[in-house]
């Protein structure tokens, strides 16, 4: 028979619904395979109708309309309509095989109109045509709280109003309306393409089932199934919050330390120009300076093991105590764009030298003090008036003198300083650049540098990193160099900074060399260096510089802080890194101390390290839920907001597992945190309910499609009588109980 031959079935599907519910977008997603971004979907709505002649004009659209469903070749033709209620759509309804009734999940009024307006209209023109109810834009059920979505809504305001939680319809509400109008219910999303093909496949099944009832003799429709159940849409797992760390300020802080001359304890004399610096910083950066500062000045002998008579460069005592103000002025005049770090001090070696200085000042005027130099407190184990000649290419002699200078308030103070006289081959400008390099690891990009003098000074002072600059650069006498450009090109900057940080940790923290302040902690004392603390921490600078008793105290009391926690703080201040011993179980004390001292970068670094450690533990199969629950509210208290947000994210993602294992810890959280977790838990509650309903419907459908089996129960031989004459009653009772259904 001809009707038994396979042929193509044509299905006309009319799409109706309110304006701006997503009818045209859904048709384009199916017919044209259109994929749009979120910004394109949120553009201002323009009422459009997808033309039916697209099947005739475009070959790709015609090819996509053909599909095989349950072994039946079908050509699906979609008819778009206007959403205005007063339009006449009787022409579109004519000879339709199925009607697709759409509403928006984010518009409760559109669902209400499906029951009160659209369903009566469909039944007036299509009394027996099957209807399929579709909820469009189901991605808004979880996206209305997304930051990208909210920012796009703000950009398009007032044309697009942000959604409220009360505007979102649950799947149960759509399913109730579908049951009232006798239609299957599905949900779709053009953004994620969820359910687009599935909806139209079931639309075809509904149309073919209705056609099979009218044309029961067509055998090609015998295997068409009922519209299948739709698996609930599970929202994607929320993205973890990004951790941002404030940019590093270590180099700027060290440069400000060099320029401000806070609590300097060493002065380099080159000619008649002096440069104040800090032993603690230079000892950690340069090995030669470490050996220079740790020698015994009062003992005999020379640096390097040779006698003083063999030294080729010997400095006179007058060069170390002469007035160098005029040369400083000349240097400032020659280099107007440079910043010269010059010490302003007066030396008082002995009564005779003091008289010479007073006569010299009376003749040439008083010494000009060009910086508010805060003098290092007097160290009791340094003997003043001691001088030692050195056998070194760069350092001629070293002496310990009492100097006078101005503090930050302009008051004259005196302290013990180490005076190092440099060789004549080191010029003031070269020494200035060497100090900047030793403090920051780079050179000043705003000033012209004489590379020949700089490299000669680096070779004399034994600075290997500075010597690695290509000798070819010396052909240009004045060269403009960008900061870190020389080391970055050679790939040595990272190695240099890492070596400096390791040396700072070893020399300043572990050895405690040249420390000038002690901190009384809960479980012991900890030594530190005031200039580094003041340069790296504003609270420390205000404490040591202001009218507080800590500014003059040799031992500073820090209540409520352990020695281990304070040592972790010092590692950050000295190296701009987080101590590897900081782990999720002990990070709260450091976060509290960082918040107390107003160190946002330290807080960010600790948050970043703790989150990475917890992710690494989670990847290794370890449970990090207990850490997240314990850190959550403490981090909120100490302004560690990024770590608190990550803990909330981790708890929300693993909410169901936490409820099964440790429900008591969840109940102990603050009510605001509990409310947040209930709103943002993943998977959400509505999905869990929908999935339970889906599994129940699947079991019911399987029970309906598979008829119950009938089987015969075997008779128990032990209870049967041996004689058939007297076993008739038992046989009748057994025959009644022999069959049952399951």
Automatic annotation (TrEMBL):
PROSITE patterns: BTB, RAB, RAS, RHO. GO terms for cellular component: endosome membrane. This is BTB domain-containing protein. Keywords: GTP-binding, Nucleotide-binding, Repeat. GO terms for molecular function: GTP binding; GTPase activity. Pfam families: BTB (PF00651), Ras (PF00071). The lineage of its organism: Eukaryota, Metazoa, Ecdysozoa, Arthropoda, Chelicerata. PANTHER family: RHO FAMILY GTPASE. It comes from the Eukaryota. NCBIfam families: small_GTP. GO terms for biological process: ameboidal-type cell migration; cellular process involved in reproduction in multicellular organism; developmental process involved in reproduction; hemocyte migration; melanization defense response; small GTPase-mediated signal transduction. InterPro entries: BTB/POZ_dom, P-loop_NTPase, SKP1/BTB/POZ_sf, Small_GTP-bd, Small_GTPase, Small_GTPase_Rho. SMART domains: BTB, RAB, RAS, RHO. Residues 354-379 are annotated as: Disordered. Residues 515-582 form the BTB domain.
């Amino acid at each position: 028979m001809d009707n038994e031959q396979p042929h193509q079935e044509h299905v006309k599907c009319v799409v109706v619904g309110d304006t701006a519910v997503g009818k045209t977008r859904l048709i384009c997603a199916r017919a044209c395979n259109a994929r749009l971004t979120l910004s394109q979907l949120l553009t201002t709505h323009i009422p459009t109708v997808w033309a039916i002649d697209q099947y005739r004009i475009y070959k790709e659209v015609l090819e996509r309309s053909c599909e095989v469903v349950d072994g039946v070749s079908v050509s699906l033709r979609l008819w778009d309509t206007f959403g205005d209620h007063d339009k006449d759509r009787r022409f579109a309804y004519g000879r339709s095989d199925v009607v697709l009734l759409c509403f928006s999940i984010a518009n409760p009024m559109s669902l209400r109109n499906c029951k009160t307006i659209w369903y009566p209209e469909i039944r007036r023109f299509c009394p027996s045509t099957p209807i399929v109810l579709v909820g469009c834009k189901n991605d808004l059920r979880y996206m209305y709280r997304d930051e990208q979505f909210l920012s796009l809504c703000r950009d398009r305001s007032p044309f697009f109003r942000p959604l409220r939680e009360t505007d979102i319809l649950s799947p149960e509400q759509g399913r109730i309306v579908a049951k009232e109008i006798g239609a299957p219910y599905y949900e779709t999303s053009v953004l994620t393409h969820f359910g687009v093909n599935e909806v139209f496949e079931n639309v075809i099944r509904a149309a073919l089932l209705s056609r099979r009832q009218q044309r029961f003799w067509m055998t090609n429709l015998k295997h068409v199934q009922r519209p299948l159940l739709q698996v609930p849409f599970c929202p994607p797992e929320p993205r973890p919050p990004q951790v941002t760390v404030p940019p590093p300020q270590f180099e700027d802080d060290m440069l400000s330390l060099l320029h401000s001359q806070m609590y300097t304890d060493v002065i380099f004399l080159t000619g008649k120009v002096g440069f104040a610096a800090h032993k603690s910083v230079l000892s950690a950066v340069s090995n030669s300076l470490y050996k220079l500062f740790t020698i015994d000045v009062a003992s005999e002998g020379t640096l390097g093991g040779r006698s003083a008579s063999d030294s080729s460069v010997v400095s006179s005592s007058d060069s170390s105590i002469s007035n160098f103000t005029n040369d400083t002025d000349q240097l400032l005049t020659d280099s107007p764009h440079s910043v010269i770090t010059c010490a302003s001090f007066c030396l008082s070696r002995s009564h005779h030298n003091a008289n010479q200085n007073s006569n010299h000042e009376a003749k040439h005027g008083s010494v000009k003090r060009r910086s508010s130099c805060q003098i290092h407190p007097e160290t009791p184990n340094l003997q003043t008036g001691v001088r030692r000649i050195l056998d070194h290419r760069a350092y001629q002699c070293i002496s310990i003198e009492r100097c006078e200078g101005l503090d930050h308030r302009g008051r004259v103070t005196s302290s013990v300083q180490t005076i190092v006289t440099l060789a004549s081959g080191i010029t003031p400008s070269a020494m200035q650049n060497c100090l900047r390099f030793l403090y920051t690891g780079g050179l000043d990009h705003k000033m012209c540098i004489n590379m020949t003098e700089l490299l000669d000074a680096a070779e004399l002072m034994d600075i290997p990193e500075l010597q690695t600059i290509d000798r070819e650069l010396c052909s240009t006498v004045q060269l403009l160099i960008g900061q870190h450009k020389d080391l970055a090109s050679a790939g040595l900057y990272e190695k240099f900074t890492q070596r400096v940080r390791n040396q700072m940790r070893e020399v300043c923290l572990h050895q405690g060399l040249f420390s000038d302040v002690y901190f009384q902690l809960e479980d012991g004392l900890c030594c530190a260096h005031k200039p580094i603390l003041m340069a790296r921490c504003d609270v420390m600078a205000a404490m040591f510089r202001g009218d507080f008793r800590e500014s003059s105290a040799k031992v500073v009391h820090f209540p409520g802080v352990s020695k281990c926690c304070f040592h972790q703080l010092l590692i950050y201040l000295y190296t701009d890194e987080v101590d590897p011993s900081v782990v999720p179980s002990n990070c709260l004390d450091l976060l509290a101390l960082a918040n107390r001292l107003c160190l946002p970068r330290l807080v960010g670094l600790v948050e970043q390290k703790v989150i990475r450690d917890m992710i690494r533990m989670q990847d290794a199969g370890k449970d990090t839920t207990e850490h997240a629950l314990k850190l959550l509210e403490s981090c909120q208290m100490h302004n560690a907001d990024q770590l608190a947000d990550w803990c909330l994210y981790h708890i929300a993602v693993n909410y169901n597992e936490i409820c099964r294992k440790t429900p008591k810890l969840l109940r102990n959280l603050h009510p605001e945190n509990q409310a947040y977790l209930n709103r943002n838990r993943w998977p959400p509650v509505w999905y869990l309910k929908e999935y339970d309903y889906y599994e129940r419907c699947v079991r019911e459908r399987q029970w309906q499609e598979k008829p119950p089996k009938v089987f015969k129960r075997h008779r128990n031989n032990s209870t049967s009588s041996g004689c058939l004459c007297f076993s008739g009653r038992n046989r009748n009772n057994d025959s009644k109980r022999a069959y049952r259904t399951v």
